[in-house]
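Handout, page 2. Input:
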Amino acid sequence: SAVVWVLTASMWLDHSWAKEPPDTTAEWVSFVISTTEGKKEIQTRPHQLLVCLASPPVEWALTKSKPSYIKNWNYLLPRQHRQFRPKSAYRRTKPSLDQWIIIELNSEISLKNALKEIRKDSSVLNAEPNYQVMLAQQRPDERIPNDFYFDRSWGLNNTGQFEGTEDADIDLPEAWSLGVGSRDVRVAIIDTGIDFFHPDIKENLWINLKEIPGNGLDDDDNGYIDDVHGFDFVSDDGDPFDDQGHGTHVAGIVGAVANNRRGTAGICQEVSLIAIKSFGVSGSADVATVVKSMRYAIDHGTDIINASWGVDIRSELMRTAVEEAAEADVLFVAAGGNRQSEK
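Output:
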């Protein structure tokens, strides 16, 4: 049966929320949130809220009486994308991604007051700003030099070549004695994209065999046009080519081709790397974009999601996406320690 989200009249009769106009031009704005450790300032999209409803919405019938501070709303996941679930043996009892919507706010209301108003409605389970997500990059003085010789990758196989502690590594050659990987294993690189032409990566790129490259059609009817190697959620097209470098770097660590007399070797000598672009040149994204990327990975048979990024605050939407990944038997691997902390 159709579920209609009905907001209480008090949400638009009281105009006290219009007292704190936000910056209408900034891509990101500061937002102060209370945590167990005190108040914390984080970055978020200036005019967006992410809202989880008690049931998946079908339509908003209050066209004429819609709260004036709400400019527009839409599903987090468009209908066609929500219906495409080839790996859908799992069924959630908790709120799912299908129940989340994105609300665009008019410029006269602050995020703080919009959250206060929206949370008054009994059909709203969760509401939060669209937080900023940042790539997990090392400090400039700690970056690994652009040198692709495997014998210098002491973290993979440490023989004391740099006067370090011998065998202080991940024992990769020992692991390779058990197996070097398989192209049947799909790893989604949710990052800045991947350089398709990199000689050490191109052979390990995932190929969507049901999609015809460059014809401008959604051949496999999954809601994404020309997603041959993955999808670009920054530009909303099927060309997730890396224009920043971080994603290609990460993809190489995971799955650089071995025994080709060039470059280095990835942890998986054979693997299928799905290129999912969520971050642009700036190295930042928002939670909504990252979660859409995670759902794409889940729906396309991913075994592992590589998340070399993080968000400075707990997001219920992100939590829901990670839980759905786990229920679909997808391993979610997150970065840690890049800021000399546990986060």
